[in-house]
Specification:
The chain has helices at about 5-15, 20-40, 45-50, 55-65, 75-90, 100-105, 120-150, 155-170. It is an all-alpha fold. The chain is globular. It starts with a helix and ends with a helix.
Length: about 170
């Protein structure tokens, strides 16, 4: 997806609501869509992926494995925490201390002197920031990969380079 198209779509789909649960649900859904696109970029036959019926957590771990664990640590920590909160919202009528869970999820993005959000509006603004940064990171990775994999022979060269690095690191 082109960057401008991605930005317009994201802006249109992010909630206008001041309800934290809506922000968590919509934000995680948009993040999961990006993760799905990243996984699908590397697939020759996507039907097998659909048959696998991977959970969100498994997809997150799969993309992390594809990227290397040291890349974008704070963003991945946020994605995992947001997914966990989303799961709680999906399976419980009421999530106690939702604001505390959201503050904890956002902590990797904030300075060491991070203080809990004082108001719902403040918390939602911070959550929007964290979701936007994460979506931007995923979109940038998707754009980079689409350029790499659209070049003839690039996938073979990419896999060969990764294989050589892994063999060198293990020896």
């Amino acid at each position: 997806m082109e960057i401008d198209e991605f930005r317009k779509r994201t802006k249109r789909l992010l909630p206008k609501s001041k309800e934290m649960d809506i922000w968590v649900l919509k934000g995680q859904l948009l993040i999961e869509e990006q993760i799905n696109r990243l996984i699908e970029q590397g697939m020759c036959d996507k039907s097998h992926l659909k048959e696998a019926r991977l959970s969100s957590h498994q997809k997150i771990k799969l993309v992390q494995a594809m990227m290397g664990s040291s890349s974008f640590k704070r963003e991945w920590e946020f994605v995992q925490d947001l997914n966990s909160i989303r799961n709680k919202l999906a399976h419980r009528a009421e999530v106690k201390e939702l604001s505390v869970l959201i503050d904890q999820a956002m902590k990797p993005f904030m300075s060491p002197r991070f203080k809990k959000s004082r108001t719902t509006t403040d918390r939602i603004e911070r959550l929007e920031f964290c979701i936007s940064i994460t979506l931007g990171m995923l979109s940038g990775i998707e754009e980079t990969h689409s350029r790499i994999f659209s070049t003839p022979g690039a996938l073979l060269a990419w896999n060969t380079a990764i294989y050589k690095d892994e063999v060198k690191n293990k020896c």
